Amino acid sequence: MLLKLTILPGDGIGPEVTDEAVRVLESVTDIFGHQLEVARKPVGGAALAASNDPLPDDTLLCCLASQAVLLGAVGGPAFDHVPAAKRPEAGLLRLRRELGVFANLRPAVCFPALVDASPLRAEIVHRTDIVIVRELLGGIYFGQPRSTEGPAGYRVAIDTMRYAEDEIERIARVAFELARRRRRKVTSVDKANVLDSSRLWREVVNRVAGSYPDVKLSHTYVDSAAMALVARPAEFDVMLTENMFGDILSDQAGGVVGSLGMLASASIGGKVGLYEPVHGSAPDIAGRGIANPLGGILSIALLLRHSFRLEAEARSIESAVNAVLNEGCRTADLARYGQPTLTTSEMGKKVSQAVKQHAPAVA
Mind telling me the catalytic residues? Predict the structure, then answer.
């Protein structure tokens, strides 16, 4: 199979993390006999610096012409002075909208070898395996009107939380379909005791649940969900959330399982899938070789699974990551005090080698 990808290295640690993800992908395609065609394009702050546009037309057209997109990260304090419409994050939001990726899947898995990396007690975090299904193209990040008006000292800022029934229904169906392939439990997160949009959310989710009698549905308020996520994370299976709630809870889930650097994501449902680690650009550690590339590498597994339906190839990466962690390999964010650490590239090489060792048996 020909795998035609666009790579968007982005800002901060994005380039070094995507380099290692591509390294692992090259190992997989070599072992399983696929062809890989990769185009690298600028996005975010890197694109802004080069062309005064966080999402240049050439980058967008290349993404739309590919079969999948891998993104590193965008943004950083250096761009805080830039007008909102030109900020790196604006380019990312536009990219999501142009690709039509309305469903963001964010797995949070506690690998057995990383139980001691979690700030929670081992018996609490053990066996945590959650997928947060986040609606990605609606809610307060896209709702209108939005504005900041008035003279200095008296300004008023407005953001609008907006959801239509069809937007809620389509993301709910993604969650229920996913739950059918897992442990058949969906927890829908809202704030229905306060927000009209959440009351509509809950009503529509209940209606969709009628088509999935084999899946158990429960509802929880977002503040209660945040507490439960640290008190009993292993009880969750699929968490269904609107855009902002999912953004917040998935970062919290990263802390629960040991590091935000472990979290991958898949944005699907549109023309072309967009895959990216959940961590940000982390400019404070960029170029130091200490970033954890495993979130980016695990994003490649999601890319193979969802954009190409290559399950054996995806599992070979996940097995390789598990194997190197079991060997005691750690980047700085995962290491206990005094434990040896690997650089970003060393960890990428370890996973690439492990893929070569384990993949033939999987294939």
Answer: 141, 191, 223, 247, 251
